[in-house]
């Protein structure tokens, strides 16, 4: 893979992406809403490049912010070390069965502890800690503050086993830059670690990185199975362990090549008002609540650091493509590994933020098979958080095509018979439907959009020309029809 093997940090990643023509620069944008809005305009375009913001108003040149890092197949494929010229189809093909392999191999890639690294070019103690010394964006117009942690990796450990977890949990700058809140939703691995530390020691050590090889964002921001360390998982993806240094205060690891990193402790009572924030659901739906906040004990950073931004919002947003691709691959892998036969394809649609709308294509083998696929898909650990709809379609329907999935629903689902609902399932604080003060349950539906098992043979034939006939006519009139298939 050559050039891909050399990528070790965000700078290496950027250099390769630039060489591939995948990066554009914007100079002179303001951290206050302009970086966010320019990024949003980019996500909505047909082929969003990665954007590097430099010469940010009020900050020295060189202090950069990167967005849209993985908003297309080429850059996501590159980040996952699968190739530098993949399109959507090739990426999905290349990813097949990979998440399971990476998880299985992770323990062979124990992190490599090093004495020091570029992240220690500058080390700042609590007395001088100021996160606003960096051009931290106010991403959306109605956000409650500036968020340094969007594409971040927050590290915690299990106090009993020492297993390290990395989660992308958003971090808002607090207390004029001397503190940052860490917004971990209940049920996430980091939340369990913090709870256990509180019970044992009364405080929880935390480190966080705000600029790194985007691969670390993929693993931190995706539901890697519990007990598998995300850094080892990243090592398995790269085929090489990740170098870490130990934080001077907490002893927790940090990527040695991080651009900016912090450490500190969370205490049960130390909270600050957090939010609102434009969420991945497409709303400012989380409101403002007191959230665990850490006073910054150390800031480490490189010269001219690059923040890895990944602001959500109404999809498509910064990481909705990455999430759709990763979720789809992980859920498909998990369903197949569960022993379920006939699963031909899974797609977690961007319109549902990669979580709320799953389409699963199945080759029906027995009565009840389609519903079994639907129920299981809705509750697999990789899918359960905030799923709302699972649409099960026959194998002749492309689960990635929203048009074809909706067509199957309209023609193969009898609403009174074929929609099953589940209650008190794993929802989220950021669900716009949740009422204040109510625990974050949701409900969800399995929509069976397969031909009824009892009429499989007798169901009307699809009114669509056969592949053979289509091939014949496109070959006959290539000037007119050649580019259409
Ligand atoms: C850019 C980005 C931001 C995210 N922000 C949050 C957040 O603020 N809180 C949260 O609980 N999950 C957030 N997530 C989702 C978690 O990172 C994801 O569920 C991940 O699997 C959590 O790690 P864990 O499974 O080890 O707990 C975010 C994901 C991404 C990609």
TrEMBL record:
Span of domain 3-octaprenyl-4-hydroxybenzoate carboxy-lyase-like N-terminal: 15-94
Signal peptide positions (record): none
One GO BP: ferulate metabolic process
Keyword Cell inner membrane: no
GO CC annotation: cytoplasm
NCBIfam families to which the protein is assigned, alphabetical: UbiD family decarboxylase (TIGR00148)
The name this protein goes by in its record: Ubiquinone biosynthesis protein UbiD
Keyword Transmembrane helix set for record: no
InterPro entries assigned: UbiD, UbiD-like_C, UbiD-like_N, UbiD_Rift_dom
3-octaprenyl-4-hydroxybenzoate carboxy-lyase-like C-terminal domain sequence ranges: 321-449
Domain of life, per lineage: Bacteria
Pfam family, one: UbiD
Domain 3-octaprenyl-4-hydroxybenzoate carboxy-lyase-like Rift-related: 114-315
Keywords: Ubiquinone
């Amino acid at each position: 893979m050559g050039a891909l093997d050399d990528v070790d940090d965000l700078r290496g990643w950027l250099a390769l992406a630039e060489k591939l023509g995948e990066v554009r620069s914007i100079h002179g944008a303001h951290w206050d809403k302009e970086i966010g809005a320019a990024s949003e305009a980019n996500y909505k375009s047909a082929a969003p490049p990665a954007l590097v913001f430099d010469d940010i108003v009020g900050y020295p040149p060189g202090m950069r912010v990167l967005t849209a890092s993985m908003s297309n197949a080429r850059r996501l494929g590159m980040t996952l070390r699968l190739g530098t010229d993949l399109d959507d189809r090739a990426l999905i093909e290349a990813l097949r069965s990979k998440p399971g392999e990476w998880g299985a191999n992770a323990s062979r890639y124990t992190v490599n502890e090093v004495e020091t690294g570029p992240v220690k070019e500058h080390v700042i103690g609590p007395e001088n800690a100021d996160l606003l010394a960096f051009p931290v964006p106010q991403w959306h117009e109605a956000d409650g503050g500036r968020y340094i942690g969007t594409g971040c990796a927050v590290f915690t450990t299990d106090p009993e086993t020492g297993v390290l977890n990395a989660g992308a949990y958003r971090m808002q700058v607090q207390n004029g830059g001397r503190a940052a809140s860490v917004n971990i939703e209940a049920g996430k691995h980091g939340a369990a670690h913090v709870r256990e530390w509180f019970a044992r020691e009364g405080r929880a050590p935390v480190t966080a990185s705000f600029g790194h090889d985007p691969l670390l964002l993929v693993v931190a921001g995706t539901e890697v199975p519990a007990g598998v360390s995300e850094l080892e998982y990243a090592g398995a993806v790269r085929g090489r362990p990740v170098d870490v240094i130990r934080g001077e205060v907490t002893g927790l690891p940090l990527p040695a090549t991080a651009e900016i990193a912090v450490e500190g402790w969370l205490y049960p009572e130390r909270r600050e008002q957090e939010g609102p924030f434009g969420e991945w659901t497409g709303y400012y739906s989380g409101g403002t609540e007191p959230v665990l906040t850490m006073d910054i004990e150390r800031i480490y950073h490189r010269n001219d650091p690059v923040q890895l931004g990944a602001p959500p919002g109404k999809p498509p947003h910064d990481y909705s493509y990455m999430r759709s691709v990763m979720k789809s691959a992980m859920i498909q892998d998990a369903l197949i590994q569960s022993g379920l036969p006939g699963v031909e394809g899974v797609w977690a649609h961007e319109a549902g933020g990669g979580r709320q709308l799953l389409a699963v294509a199945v080759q029906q083998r027995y009565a009840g098979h389609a519903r079994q696929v639907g129920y299981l898909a809705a509750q697999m650990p990789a899918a359960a958080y905030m799923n709302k709809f699972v649409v099960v379609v026959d194998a002749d329907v492309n689960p990635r095509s929203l048009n074809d999935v909706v067509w199957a629903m309209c023609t193969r689902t009898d609403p009174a018979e074929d929609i099953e609902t589940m209650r008190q399932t794993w929802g989220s604080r950021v669900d716009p439907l949740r009422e204040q003060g109510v625990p974050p349950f949701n409900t969800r539906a399995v929509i069976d959009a397969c031909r009824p098992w009892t009429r499989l043979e007798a169901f009307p034939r699809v009114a669509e020309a056969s592949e053979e006939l289509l091939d014949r006519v496109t070959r006959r009139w290539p000037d007119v029809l050649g580019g259409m298939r």
